[in-house]
Design goal:
This protein is an alpha/beta fold. It has 11 helices and 14 strands. The protein has a 7-stranded parallel β-sheet. It has a 7-stranded mixed β-sheet with strand order 8-14-13-9-12-10-11, sandwiched between helices.
């Protein structure tokens, strides 16, 4: 069994108590990235199912980016092996019931035409829900990353489950939708526990009056390479066999063709520059994770062991766990892009869930000339320039 942190145990106790009391239809928890939300939810489910005398089935909804529902299912099975964990396909094919946990990717449901709700010869999700209720089994819903998927389609899908309790969890709770937070884990709680970095250092090595010039991508990459080597030397000094990872985040996809082409050209330039310095896909020092395009990414969605640079856009925005990721380069394309701040949370995890004597290893590093992104990093994550 895992050794839980104090704030994790407190959150688990509160969730279980509120589920047992059954007084609130929605329990809202805000917990920073890296705080172990999946661990907290898994143990809360286990403790609740063990203590409540009624029959319950759990539906665990996750957003689709980054295949989060698969990661959550695997982690749940490791920490709570005594209860069945099902995919949505398994649940619809065979039915579901008491003491089972069904992991659902919203992308499979939150669209107009989906097989799970389609009328067919075999039973669909709606039929299986009715069967579950007929057998006297209550359904409880977990909404992981609850700030996502607030569409009308999603709301109608949740209505299929009837009257049920929900546990809504996010690092960034939308106060307009959920004005009351029942359980709040602070960033200080998680930092003190050693699970995440002490500080996000922004643009270290860039003076405020520095004139960058036209080759800003090259300038930022060179800073990141120097910092990556510094962290690697620090790991080597303490005997930690780990290659620090640099994430390069490109502008989000856009329906406007000219913006898509601009982002592609930007990535091609960066890939060419890195290749000139010896970082390529062929020697596995570079990896890529874009929508429908993965290179040098293993079956667990991890870059290969020796990979140093990971190219991405939004795939890492939720749920992805790679504690050796320590540096983020956020590139801009000089156009009106909508920035995605959550990727920043991916570089905050500590590799051994503890802090070290050398603070270079206790911090993570952001390099960007995107002023909006920098402002959001300071406001949302307490980054310091």
């Amino acid at each position: 069994m895992l050794e839980l942190k104090d704030f994790q145990e407190n959150a688990i106790t509160k969730i279980v108590a509120m589920l047992n009391e059954n007084k609130k239809p929605e329990i809202v928890m805000q917990s920073p990235t890296g705080s172990g939300k999946t661990i907290i939810l898994s143990y809360a489910i286990r403790n609740f199912l063990k203590t409540d005398t009624n029959k319950h089935c759990i539906f665990w909804f996750s957003p689709g980016n980054g295949e989060l529902e698969e990661q959550s299912k695997v982690k749940f099975e490791k920490v709570v092996p005594e209860y069945d964990a099902l995919s949505l396909d398994e649940a619809i094919r065979n039915g579901f019931g008491e003491n089972q946990v069904v992991f659902v990717n919203w992308e499979m449901l939150d669209k107009k035409d989906n097989k799970a709700l389609r009328e067919q010869e075999n039973k669909n999700l709606k039929d299986r829900i009715e069967d579950c209720h007929s057998n006297g089994v209550n359904i409880i819903i977990i909404q992981d990353e609850s700030h996502t998927h607030n569409t009308e389609i999603a709301k109608n899908i949740l209505k299929l489950f009837g009257k049920t309790q929900k546990v809504k969890v996010s690092a960034t709770v939308d106060k307009k939708i959920d004005p009351i937070i029942d359980i709040e884990i602070t960033e200080d709680d998680v930092i003190r526990s050693g699970l995440i970095t002490k500080l996000i250092s922004i643009n270290e090595g860039i003076s405020k009056n520095k004139v960058i010039g036209s080759d800003e991508e090259e300038f930022l990459i060179n800073l990141a390479i120097a910092k990556q080597r510094e962290i690697a030397a620090g790991y080597n000094k303490i005997g930690l066999d780990l290659v620090p990872l640099v994430i390069i985040q490109y502008p989000n996809e856009s329906k406007k063709k000219e913006m898509e082409e601009s982002s592609t050209r930007l990535m091609n330039r960066v890939e060419k520059y890195l290749a000139g310095k010896g970082y390529t896909y062929d020697n596995e020092l570079c990896a890529c994770w874009l929508d429908g395009n993965k290179k040098n990414i293993d079956n667990g969605n991890q870059p290969l062991k020796n990979t140093i640079f990971l190219h991405t856009k939004q795939a890492l925005a939720v749920g992805w766990d790679c504690p050796r990721a320590k540096i983020l380069i956020k590139l801009r394309d000089h156009m009106n892009e909508s920035f995605e701040i959550q990727v920043l949370g991916r570089i905050r995890r500590m590799p051994e869930q503890k802090h070290y004597a050398d603070d270079i290893l206790n911090n993570c590093y952001l390099y960007t000339l995107d002023e909006k992104y920098k402002e959001a990093a300071i406001k949302s994550y307490g980054g310091k320039e």
